[in-house]
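--- STAGE predict ---
source: upstream dedup step, 1 unique chain passed
mode: sequence only
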Amino acid sequence: MRVSRTRRLAAATAAAALVAGAAWAATSASASTAPARATAAAVQRASAGGLTPDQHRRADQLISIFENSTTELQYGYAENINDGRGVTAGRAGFTTNDGDALKVVRAYTAVSPDNPLARFIPELERLAAAGSGDTSGLPESDYVAAWKQAAQDATFRQVQDDQVDQRYFTPAMNQADQLGLTTALARAELYDASIQHGNGSEYDALPALIGRTNAKVGSPSGAGESAWLNAFFDVRVDDLTNPANSSTADEWRKSVDRVECLRRIAATGNYNLDGPLSVTAFGSGYTID
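--- STAGE serialize ---
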């Protein structure tokens, strides 16, 4: 299961009161062109998991803010954050203890056999099989350096994008389709939860969060999408504050503001994730075009 990474935030920032809001501005279409634009947008959404390309990009940038405190996707990030999961690396925090990183490196090696990470596959397999956070056998410093080197390769960056789509984005969009969610913000929230919580059968995973939300307020069609989304925010915050997986508790409690940031966007009414989008997360401000 994926875990939140808040290690790049200063302690003082993490402890500060988070009171900033989010603002947005968008250009309206004229009545004469609205039907044509609506048709084009529908085609775009159908090909991008229910999101237009711009909405998908903004969702990715929001998640990058939550994960790495920048709107730029961090393909070369690699660090042991001492959370028991070994080295956390790449744009979505692929870890060495649970097979996430192994799948990325295997996929990269399949298309680029002579790459700097290929030699780590046997040890990554051992760590994944054991669920071990031990990195001494890699060894850690060599693995981190190799990941950073590989990230300079466009092929490796594309592999990371593909893995994120297959393992996090598509499952989240499938859940959104089943729920009948139509707004970009609600879909982005499920995508972010998929990245952080995973899509397994655990109590802390996205399907369980959805189940508890439905039990609390009913389906989105019955409760209304905005009311359902607000309830999902509450359920997710409760899970981050009191996760069943105790090994991630400290990190997750620090990450609550990634949910509150999206709740602040909802409070502005920008359910379409229109840009430019100005947000505050963990005490820092960002603008997404």
